[in-house]
Amino acid sequence: MEKRKALITGSGRNLGRGVALRLAQAGFDVAIHARSNAADAQAVAQEARALGVQAVTCLGDMGSTGDVQHMAAQVLGAFGHVDVLVNVAAYRPFQNFLEMGTADWQRVMDTNVTGVFQLTQAVLPGMIERRFGRIINFSGMNSIRGYPQRVHIAASKHAVWGMTKALSREFGPHNITVNCISPGPAQSEHEDAAFDALILAQVKEIPLGRLARQSEIAGMVAFLASEEGGFVSGQMIGVNGGAET
Fold first, then answer.
1. How far is Cα 182 from Cα 80, in angstroms, rounded to an integer?
2. Is the dihedral of CA 227, 9, 87, 199 positive or negative?
């Protein structure tokens, strides 16, 4: 049986990497995306190949229309089609609302919303033709609760949630499911020590009293991408240890 093909944005490290390797374990050929770090993307691709699947890499800024179009062309050229699209990549800067300029707002929207729209639009025709597709967006607690200094992020992630619901209705008749995962704080590594400290500080809000393991979030993606997940669509699924929503 031909292997399914999956494209995971933001998969050079952290949650995206965990998702890509979990799908590779499940037998999916994977396309690894990073914004600019080719070494990170190649390292994850090598890990995936060691699991017995094909892996390709692509680089590009999700906030750039030209980059997104080039990424899509690369992956479709290598795989022929994409069965599973997982939109993990996002831009999440801290900024006081009253100091936020239109360009700051637009940069977040371009990456978190417009890039998702463009990449989804690029892979949907192949899903329709093959009558199989899984689109899995990442939202986050920003879209549910809202946080100070993250108004633009909350707005962008709410837009992704709205897109998820609308797409699930429009393309359900083609056997394409569209869902959104809202992950809680997860074990990860960032270049910004302050961001790591912020993640650790959120443990006190989680009833289970710990950060998520990347495998727990990636496992939900693998389920939604599987045949068994084929009757789940249009949903926001919290993988957050019971944190208040």
1. 30
2. positive
Tally of CB atoms within 10 A around 36 = 11
CA separation for the pair 151, 101 (Å, rounded) = 12
CA 134 to mean position of chain CA atoms: 12
What's the pLDDT tens digit per position in 101-158?
Answer: 999 999 999 999 999 999 999 999 999 999 999 999 999 876 677 788 889 999 999 9
Is-contact 42 48, C-beta < 8 A?
no
Alpha-carbon gap, residue 93 to 85, rounded angstroms: 24
HSE-CB at 187 with a 13 A cutoff on CA atoms is: 10
For residue 171, the Cα-to-chain-centroid distance in whole angstroms is: 19
- What 3 state SS string does the chain have? CCCCEEEECCCCCHHHHHHHHHHHHCCCEEEEEECCCHHHHHHHHHHHHCCCCCEEEEECCCCCHHHHHHHHHHHHHHHCCCCEEEECCCCCCCCCHHHCCHHHHHHHHHHHHHHHHHHHHHHHHHHHHHCCEEEEEECCHHHCCCCCCCHHHHHHHHHHHHHHHHHHHHHHHHCEEEEEEEECCECCCCCCHHHHHHHHHHHHHCCCCCCECHHHHHHHHHHHHCCCCCCCCCCEEEECCCCCC
Q: Which two tokens stand for residue 156?
A: 């962008």
